[in-house]
Specification:
Distance between the termini: 55 Å
Helix content: over 70%
Largest sheet: none
Order of helices and strands: HHHHHHHHHHHH
Strand content: under 5%
Length: 289
């Protein structure tokens, strides 16, 4: 009997070891697939000239130089592109967060006619491809005189990101016990005070997720910015990269250097807010009606 138990335990341990090896092998393979393009971009940015198709696999080439970074910062309008992008994204993320936080509180705490239909409509807007919205957004912006305007681009980005943020925040608000608000109401607090002093501090993880989503939605966009902005002084970094691509030649070294520098703010923001992401997404993923 003991021999049978030992054999079964040995087989179980072998299966567990084999499964762990397979899982870790897949994770390592996928990690390499994700990291390799980033390392190649950094490598190209350190090469002098435009040697994109070099056969060397060295991450840091032997003749590595920061010349491409110097040209991007001093000879190109990278700082202007970065300033425009940062201004647009911060305004979009802040405005979208303020509107979605208050709207989600209404959907979470009030029961009114048409509430479910409005929530379904907000969810349905996320199923429409972004490319289909470019023409109507451009027509509205042209009639309102918002073409070649950073304000118009901020409004367009905010409108497209608010529905998802409302759903995330509503789901998180639903997990906050209503008894906390009842206690505050007994103490004389009004709805605005409850939202500002109680709900928002308790919903920091969900607010971080919504802010990050709004930020990324505006930071990475190219199509809408290409349609809305024609003045070079208003270009974002994605439009500025297009200027580095000529008809017969592309400045690949500067192109890679700009891509590397543009990734730094996003990585920093993600690392700073990573402690809120998991709890914000999991608690906000289940809603109650």
């Amino acid at each position: 009997m003991n021999a049978v138990v030992r054999v079964s335990r040995r087989r179980f341990s072998v299966r567990r070891l084999l499964r762990a090896c397979i899982i870790h092998g897949l994770l390592i393979a996928f990690s390499i697939m994700a990291i390799y393009p980033v390392l190649r971009t950094i490598s190209v940015s350190l090469r002098p000239g435009d040697r994109l198709l070099s056969t060397s696999l060295r991450i840091i080439p032997e003749d590595a130089s920061l010349e491409n970074y110097r040209q991007a910062l001093l000879e190109k309008d990278f700082l202007l592109w970065l300033w425009n992008t940062m201004l647009i994204t911060l305004l979009t993320a802040t405005a979208g967060l303020m509107l979605s936080a208050s709207s989600a509180y209404v959907f979470s705490r009030w029961r009114f006619r048409g509430r479910k239909a409005m929530l379904v409509f907000l969810l349905a807007t996320q199923m429409v491809p972004a490319a289909m919205l470019i023409v109507p957004i451009y027509i509205l912006a042209a009639r309102l005189g918002l073409i070649n305007s950073l304000v118009g681009l901020v409004i367009a980005y905010s409108v497209s990101s608010i529905p998802f943020s409302i759903w995330i925040l509503k789901g998180y608000y639903d997990t906050v016990p209503y008894s906390i608000e009842e206690a505050a109401t007994i103490d004389g607090a009004n709805r605005l005070y409850i939202l500002w002093r109680i709900m928002l501090p308790l919903s920091t993880p969900a607010l971080a997720v919504a802010f990050l989503f709004n930020f990324l939605n505006a930071w990475k966009d190219f199509l809408l910015a290409r349609v809305m902005l024609q003045k070079e002084t208003l270009y974002t970094w994605s439009l500025g990269l297009q200027q580095l691509q000529g008809q017969f030649q592309t400045e690949w070294g500067i192109f890679a250097a700009v891509c590397t520098m543009v990734a730094i703010p996003i990585v920093g923001l993600f690392l700073y807010s990573s402690k809120y992401l998991i709890s914000g997404l999991t608690l906000g993923s289940v809603t109650t009606e």
